[in-house]
C-alpha cells in the first residue's frame, strides 16, 4: 500500500453504443454491462489494496457525480470530481495532475479508463506495480500496451523500440511512436510485426514528469491548468473554480497533446486479459452461450434461433422465434433490435432519437 | 329490423398467433387488432340495425363472459353465453339452435365468426339480408362464400353448383361440395376454375332446418342438445345446465357434422371485402405503411429497415436498426420478435411457454 501513489479513473464517457441500457445520465461505466457490478465499481475494486481509497480519484461529468458517489461508497466525496463540460483527455489529465500535486507534489499516479473489463486482476496489479516503479525510477511517461490479439481498426497502436530495463521478469520498452487507428491492411502489418500494442489509455507517471511534459508540449493548456491550481491552492472550492475556468481549456486528446510528441515514453506489455467492452457483442466474450450460441441476460426465450444476444430487464420476457444473429435489448421504456453486425451503429439510432422531440427523453 | 331473425356470434377462439397481445383470458376477438374497437365489438356493430340487440347472441368461453359483457354493453346479459368447455363448432351451433328455438321456434338465425374484419358493411348487410331470405324461402342451409382471391391453403373451400335462384341481382347457388383445406396445387386449380369460394364459417338457416339436419346427421349430438333444451324449457338456469351436460356432447366441427353431408346447401357470393385477420401480417392490409413498407402501431422507430410490422404498447419505444421483414410486438410483460414468414408459428412459441412453469403465466 503506497500512499504516495494515486489512481485517477477517467469516467467521463457516454457509451451510446449500449443504448437503451445506457443513457446520458447512466452511461456505460455506471452499468453492470459485464458482471454484477457497474464497470466503474469493478475498476475501483481492482486497484484498492494497491493504494488507499483516499488516493483513488474519479473524474466524471458534473451531472454524474452523485451517481458515481452512490456506486463507489468507499471513496471520499472529495475524490469524485465533476467536469462541468467535457474538454477531452489532455485537460482531464492536466486536472488530475493538478489535484494530485496539491495533495502530494512528490506523488506518482496512474490514469485508468473506467469501463474496461479485466478478470486477471493479479496480473493487472503486478503490471501496474511495475509501471509505477518504472515511472518513479526517472522522468519517463509510462504506458501499458495491450498485446494486439487481432488487427483491430478501432484502437490506436503503440510501437515499441528497444528494451529500456527489466523489472523482475518484466521487460520495459522505449516507445518508438504512438499511431492513430489504422486501416485494416496497416493493422495487419502491425500485428504481424510483433512490435505493436493497442493503446488502452492507461498511463503512469510522476506528477512532476507529466506536469513538465504538459508545460512543454501544450503550454497554453498548462497555463490554464496552473491558474486552476492557483485558485485551488488559495482555498477556493473545486466545483466553483472548474465552473469558472474549465470550459476555457483547449480541447485536445492526451495522445495528440503529449504521447505522440514526448520522446521519453516507456511501455510495459499488459500480460492480462483485457476488454474495452466497446459494444453489445462484447457480451459474447463474457457470458456463457447456449448450445446454439445464444447469450441471454434476464428473462429470455429463443426458439429456432442462433447467435443472438438478448438482454432483458426485470420480469419482462423477451422472446425470439426464428431469429438469428440479432441483438435485442429491452428496458422499461425502450426496446432496441439490430443485427449483430450493426452493433457499432446503435449510436446512429441514438442520433435519430435526438432529432425527435417525442423521443429525446429516451437519450 | 326483423325480430324473428337472430345473429349468433361465435367468440370462442384463442387466437394464439397474436401472442403476446392475445392471451388465454384476452383472445384475439376481444382485442382491437385492426381498428380501434375489439374485433367482436366491430362484429356486433355490423349487424345492429338488421336485428334488435335483444336478438344478438354471443357464444364464448365461460371464463370470457364478463369481458365480453364489458366489450358489448349494448347486449342483454342473457345473450352472452359461456361454454364451460370447448366442444367444437357443431355443439356450439346446436346450442345456438336450442337457444333460438326457445325464444322463437319459427325464427331463422345467422352464425357469424367474431374475429373477421369487413369494411364494406353495406354490402355485407345486403348479402346477409339475401341469405336470410334464401334460408326463409325453404328448408335449405345457406352459407356465404368468400371469393377466393388467391390459392389459400389455410381455408376450406365451397364448390358451387348450378344457380338455384336470384334475389334481386344476387345469384344463389346450390353447393356441390364442401372441401377441406387443400394443398397449394389443388388450391390453384380451385381458384382457376372460378367455381370455388372460401368457407368463412358464415351460415344462415331457420332454426327448424338446422335442427332437422342435426337430428339427421349427428343424432347422438342432437339427443344431448335436446336434453339441454328440455332442462332449459323446465326453467333451469343456463349456466348450471351447461356445466352439467355440455361436456358430454360429441366434439365435431359443423363442417364435418353437417355441411359436408347435407344435400340442401346453398351459397351466396360474399361481394364485400373480408379478412379473417389470421396472423400479424394482416396488419399490412389495414394499416398505412411508410415509404419503406414498415407498418407500425404505437411508439416505434425504424432506422435502415423495411417491411417490418411493429406493434408497441403505451409509451414504450420499440426501435429497430438495420432490421427488415420482421414482426415485433411489445406488451407490458412480454416482447415477441420473429420474421414475417414465421407469423403462423407464433403458436409454437406459445407452446414453449406452456412447457415452462416460469413462463406459463404469460399464456
In short:
The first copy, chain A, has 363 residues and is of the alpha/beta class.
Secondary-structure topology with pairs:
The structure is a homodimer of 363-residue chains.
Chain A: E1 5-11, H1 39-47, E2 56-61, H2 65-71, E3 80-83, H3 88-103, E4 108-113, H4 121-136, E5 141-147, E6 157-167, E7 170-179, H5 184-193, E8 196-206, H6 207-217, H7 219-233, H8 238-245, H9 254-259, E9 265-270, E10 295-297, E11 300-303, E12 309-311, E13 317-321, E14 326-330, E15 334-339, H10 346-355
Parallel strand pairs in A: 1-2, 1-4, 2-3, 5-9, 10-12, 11-13, 12-14
Antiparallel strand pairs in A: 4-8, 5-8, 6-7, 6-8, 7-9, 14-15
Helix pairs in contact in A: 3-6, 3-7, 6-7, 7-8
Q: Which labels suit this protein?
A:
homodimer, 363 residues, alpha/beta, Spore Coat Polysaccharide Biosynthesis Protein SpsA, Chain A, 2 domains, five-stranded mixed barrel, four-stranded mixed beta sheet
Computed over alpha carbons, the radius of gyration of chain A is 21 Å
* Secondary structure tally: strands of chain A: 15
Q: Residue ranges of chain A: pLDDT <50 for 5 or more in a row?
A: none
Estimated structural class of chain A: alpha/beta
Largest interface: A-B, 37 and 37 residues
Overall domain count of chain A: 2
- CATH-assigned homologous superfamily of the largest domain in chain A: Spore Coat Polysaccharide Biosynthesis Protein SpsA, Chain A
Amino acid at each position: 500500500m503506497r500512499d504516495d501513489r494515486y489512481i485517477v479513473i477517467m469516467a467521463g464517457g457516454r457509451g451510446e453504443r449500449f443504448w437503451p441500457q445506457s443513457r446520458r445520465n447512466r452511461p456505460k461505466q455506471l452499468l453492470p454491462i459485464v458482471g454484477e457490478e457497474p464497470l466503474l465499481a469493478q475498476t475501483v475494486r481492482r486497484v484498492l489494496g494497491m493504494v488507499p481509497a483516499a488516493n483513488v480519484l474519479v473524474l466524471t461529468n458534473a451531472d454524474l457525480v452523485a451517481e458515481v458517489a452512490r456506486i463507489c461508497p468507499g471513496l471520499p466525496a472529495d475524490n469524485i470530481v465533476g467536469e462541468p463540460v467535457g474538454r477531452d483527455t489532455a485537460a482531464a489529465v492536466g486536472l488530475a495532475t493538478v489535484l494530485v500535486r496539491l495533495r502530494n507534489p512528490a506523488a506518482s499516479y496512474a490514469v485508468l479508463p473506467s469501463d474496461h473489463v479485466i478478470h486477471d486482476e493479479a496480473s493487472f496489479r503486478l503490471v501496474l506495480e511495475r509501471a509505477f516503479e518504472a515511472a518513479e525510477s526517472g522522468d519517463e511517461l509510462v504506458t501499458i500496451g495491450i498485446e494486439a490479439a487481432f488487427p483491430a481498426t478501432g484502437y490506436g497502436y503503440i510501437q515499441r523500440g528497444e528494451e529500456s530495463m527489466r523489472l523482475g521478469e518484466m521487460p520495459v520498452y522505449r516507445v518508438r511512436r504512438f499511431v492513430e487507428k489504422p486501416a485494416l491492411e496497416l493493422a495487419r502489418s502491425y500485428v504481424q510485426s510483433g512490435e505493436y500494442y493497442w493503446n488502452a489509455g492507461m498511463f503512469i507517471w510522476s506528477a512532476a514528469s507529466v506536469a513538465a511534459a504538459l508545460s512543454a508540449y501544450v503550454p497554453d493548456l498548462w497555463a490554464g491548468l496552473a491558474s486552476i491550481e492557483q485558485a485551488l491552492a488559495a482555498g477556493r472550492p473545486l466545483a466553483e473554480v472548474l465552473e469558472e475556468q474549465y470550459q476555457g481549456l483547449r480541447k485536445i486528446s492526451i495522445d495528440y497533446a503529449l504521447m505522440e510528441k514526448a520522446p521519453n515514453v516507456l511501455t510495459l506489455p499488459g500480460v492480462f486479459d483485457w476488454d474495452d467492452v466497446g459494444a453489445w457483442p462484447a457480451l459474447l466474450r463474457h457470458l456463457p452461450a447456449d448450445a446454439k450460441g445464444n447469450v441471454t441476460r434476464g428473462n429470455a426465450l429463443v426458439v429456432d434461433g442462433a447467435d443472438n444476444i438478448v438482454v432483458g430487464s426485470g420480469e419482462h420476457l423477451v422472446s425470439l422465434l426464428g431469429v438469428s444473429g440479432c441483438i435485442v435489448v429491452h428496458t422499461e421504456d425502450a426496446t432496441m433490435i439490430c443485427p449483430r453486425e450493426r452493433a457499432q451503429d446503435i449510436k446512429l439510432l441514438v442520433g435519430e432519437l435526438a432529432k425527435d422531440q417525442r423521443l429525446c427523453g429516451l437519450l
